[in-house]
Amino acid sequence: MAQVLIIEDDPRIRPLLMRSLGELGYAVASASTGMSGLSLAVDTRPDLVILDLGLPDVDGTQVLAMLRAVSDVPVIVASARDDDPSLIGCLDAGADDYVVKPYTTAQLEARIRAVMRRTASTGERPRATVVGGLSLDVLARTATLDGRLLDLSPREFDLLARLAESAGDVVGKKELLVDVWHQAWGGSDKTVDVHLSWLRRKLGESAAEPRYLHTVRGVGVRLSPPDA
Ligand code: CA
To answer: Which CATH number fits domain 3-120: 3.40.50.2300, 2.115.10.20, 3.40.50.1580, 3.40.50.300?
Structure first.
């Protein structure tokens, strides 16, 4: 039985969520403050955390940062607004997905299942992927280029890892939005473009003079070694 920890201070939401997830077969624990949630997450090692951003003691984004320092437990953040800048910060800081309040149990459960599926499949992937001078360790989440450690954000690493998975093949931007940003609808190609340009800079190349990242106009992006 999967264990879910809910960190949520709203007395109308928390018991309801506990009951409905319990009825769906999850073992549910909850905390109403950021700090108590953090210590529960560390002590009980849940399979997944649902984290509210507006908490009474510490901001949810800080809880996430502290949690990420010690654990890679999947985290779904919940926010009242989908244009909340801290929500975007959370995704960059390693949240696995998000739900916008008010959400239904069905929506949340779909996210939970998707996150569990993704994190389960991560474990089955081979640990190291090598593309030319580029090497990725998907478990340690580190990447090196010609032996030099790259300083990548979590999202940049995910993007690079997804491209490395299909090295030599063109991956469509819509596909990247789904696999890396988990946005099946309404995601913008611009998001992919911006992260690609950051990634290019870190790999020491440019769109005009590509080495590893090759844009195929109107189709997508291909990761391949410079001499391929
Ligand atoms: Ca709240």
So the answer is: 3.40.50.2300
CA of 52 to the centre of ligand 1 (A): 6
119-154 per-position pLDDT tens digit = 775 544 456 788 999 999 887 889 999 989 999 999
C-alpha span between 69 and 197 (Å, rounded) = 27
Q: How far is the CA of 8 from the centre of ligand 1 (A)?
A: 6
Helix or strand run (H / E) with residue 116:
helix 105-124
pTM higher than 0.70:
no
- Burial group, residue 76, by CB count within 10 angstroms (0-12, 13-18, 19+): buried
Q: Are 145 and 203 in contact (CB under 8 A)?
A: yes
- Cα(107) to centroid of ligand 1, in Å? 18
